[in-house]
Amino acid sequence: MEQGDIFVISAPSGAGKTTLCRRLLADDKRLCFSISHTTRRPRPGEIDGRDYFFVSRERFEAIEKDGGFLEWAEVHGNLYGTSRSQVFERLKEGADVLLDVDVQGARQIRRTFPDAVFIFILPPSWRELERRLYARGSEDSEWLELRLKNAAVELDAVTEYEFSVVNNELETALEELKAIILARRCRTKRVLERAGLAGSLGVQCGRNV
Fold first, then answer.
1. Is the pLDDT of residue 135 over 90?
2. What are the tens digits of pLDDT across the range 174-197?
3. What sign results for the dihedral spanned by CA atoms 62, 66, 69, 72?
4. Which residues, including other chains, have CB under 8 Å from residue 47's CB and lie 6 or more apart?
5. pTM for the full model?
6. CATH classification for the domain delimited by 6-195, as one of 3.40.50.300, 3.40.50.150, 3.40.50.1370, 3.40.1280.10
């Protein structure tokens, strides 16, 4: 069976990553979402097992100690991690896996999956990023300042990513994300594997084409 690809998406808080990922998953049935574990509290409207697996710090640390995370990081005082078994199982089934992780997590994933597709979502401007964060109204000023400080650090890492999408207009950003995924799926190696022609044409499937 053709093995799927990994698409890693990162962005600073307020860039609109969550909304874009949800739209992308709704429109692309070949793409599945790796649900992360986190120790933070659910936000209004979030559901355990759909948005995140909400766990205690003790439970999270036990999973990490057993090697259960492909990547994990502490962000804004909370722990986030990607289930190793969940990702590998989906890839073996031939699904393309979407990972919504921060810059720290992306660096860890690159060590295991150097051929994954890394995409960074950018805000149209720093002023707009500030406006979006303050418009949420869900966090106090101290937390907002921390998020802005971390956003500046994350933006400095954009050159580590293969692709970047500016989320100024949602529909345009969404189409650009879809184009990146489509281009990846149209690589010669994947097309030949999907058509069952790789062996007959003498293509070494272990190489990137």
1. no
2. 999 999 999 999 988 878 877 777
3. positive
4. none
5. 0.84
6. 3.40.50.300
